[in-house]
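Postdoc handover notes: sequence design on the structure in folder B. Input tokens:
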């Protein structure tokens, strides 16, 4: 009965994490697969797999949120393996809710196109760091855990990526 109570607590925690992370995980998946429905399906699968693995999950210094993004990352990799192609979505296609005027929205779209072109000059690793840090909102430590790098290496990669972006955008 003790294990059942523990599992119930973890399931409740996962439900809270679903509320907190589902949209972020779906956005991350969308930037990687380029199709909203597939991204939502992948995000749902993240939580289905997490629920199946809750009893074996041990928080060895990795927060549950980072664990969920690790699952998402693995599912995206599997998705691309199945499709035998690597797709990313243009930054301009990421929907941003806004009350701005059409002129302001057009200006933002032009700026996003500039950012997209600048991101093409980054390495794949740098693009992934930028996606995880700024689109998914993960900390550098969480990104490091996902990519198998130290927090410092992620910060260095982020710094180098931002420096390249700045040089292209300014």
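Designed sequence:
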């Amino acid at each position: 009965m003790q294990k059942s109570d523990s599992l119930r607590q973890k399931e409740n925690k996962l439900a809270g994490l679903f509320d907190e992370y589902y949209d972020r995980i779906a956005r991350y998946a969308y930037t990687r697969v380029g199709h909203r429905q597939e991204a939502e399906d992948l995000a749902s699968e993240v939580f289905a797999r997490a629920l199946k693995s809750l009893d074996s999950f041990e928080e060895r210094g990795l927060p549950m949120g980072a664990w969920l993004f690790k699952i998402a990352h693995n599912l995206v990799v599997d998705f691309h393996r199945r499709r035998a192609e690597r797709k990313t979505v243009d930054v301009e296609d990421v929907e941003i809710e806004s009350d701005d005027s059409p002129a302001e929205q057009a200006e933002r779209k032009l700026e996003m196109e500039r950012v997209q072109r600048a991101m093409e000059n980054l390495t794949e690793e740098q693009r992934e760091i930028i996606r995880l840090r700024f689109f998914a909102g993960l900390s550098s430590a969480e990104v490091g855990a996902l990519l198998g790098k130290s927090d410092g290496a992620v910060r260095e990669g982020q710094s180098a990526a931002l420096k390249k972006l700045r040089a292209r955008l300014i």
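Context for whoever picks this up: The domain at 1-89 is CATH 1.10.1740.10 (Rna Polymerase Sigma Factor; Chain: A). Don't rerun without checking with the PI first.
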